[in-house]
Amino acid sequence: MDTTHDFYAMPRIGDIAPDFEAVTTKGKIKFSDFAKGKWIVMFSHPADFTPVCTTEMSGFAVRKEEFDALNTELMGLSIDSIHSHLAWVNNVREKTGVYFDFPIIADIDMKVSKLYGMLQPNESETAAVRAVFFIDPKKKIRLIMYYPLNVGRNMDEILRVLEALQVSDKHKVAMPLNWKAGDKVIVPPPKTLDELEARLKDDSIEKVDFYLAKRDLELA
Ligand code: BEZ
């Protein structure tokens, strides 16, 4: 399949999330009006009533309170009908007691999947890959994950990067390898020679050299 066509253009980090209207398990949604003032984690799954997808959706559902605590709304999507979504949500609740209490887009015409590069035809021409879009309150895309059909995502990592983005914004710091809440953060490197001199003399921070320094968050 020709994947160079614009049809399969993919949004990028820093772009404003493309707007759309869609039918979901919570009713019709216009994305630009959804979750105003909040972060959004929008994720696709390949198909309802499939095993890996059921574990992932259940993972989002059971940890929904952690997303709530991070001022974040969840939104799922697959190329399935609304009837399929309703039956699956109901079935999982009956079988396991887990309830998918967030909107799931019924993207039967693939409109949203194509808009967000979730349909990657050399992986599948009919099912969305496992994408996760982290979208900030200004509707800007801040981080994107794409996983193939056969590998489930990691909920700890999804929550970790969401919190990392928020802490980074709030404190104007960067996050090192494997950062998690409570760990030291990276202070921005100096931008002038004066700042470099000051950094070299600053003994209050954990410093490898002027360009790599960490400190506790409350001091950042
Ligand atoms: C699954 O969720 O188990 C699955 C869905 C589509 C393709 C492969 C696996």
Verbal overview:
The structure is a single chain. The chain contains 6 helices and 10 strands; from the N terminus they run βββααβαβαββαβαββ. It is of the alpha+beta class and 220 residues long. The strands form 3 sheets. A 5-stranded mixed β-sheet has the order 5-4-3-6-7. Strands 8-10-9 form a 3-stranded antiparallel β-sheet, with no helix packed on it. Strands 1-2 form a two-stranded antiparallel sheet. A hairpin with a 2-residue loop joins strand 9 and strand 10 (212-215). The protein is elongated, with a radius of gyration of 20 Å. Bound molecules: benzoic acid.
Round the Cα radius of gyration to an integer and report it: 20 Å
Coarse shape:
elongated
The overall pLDDT, averaged over residues, is 95
What are the secondary-structure elements, in order, as H or E? Answer: EEEHHEHEHEEHEHEE
CATH class designation of the largest domain: Alpha Beta
Second-tier CATH architecture of the largest domain: 3-Layer(aba) Sandwich
Reported by name, the CATH topology of the largest domain is Glutaredoxin
Quote the distance from N terminus to C terminus: 50 Å
Bound molecules: benzoic acid
Taking strands numbered 1, 2, ... along the chain, how are they ordered across the largest sheet?
5-4-3-6-7
Helix and strand composition category: alpha+beta
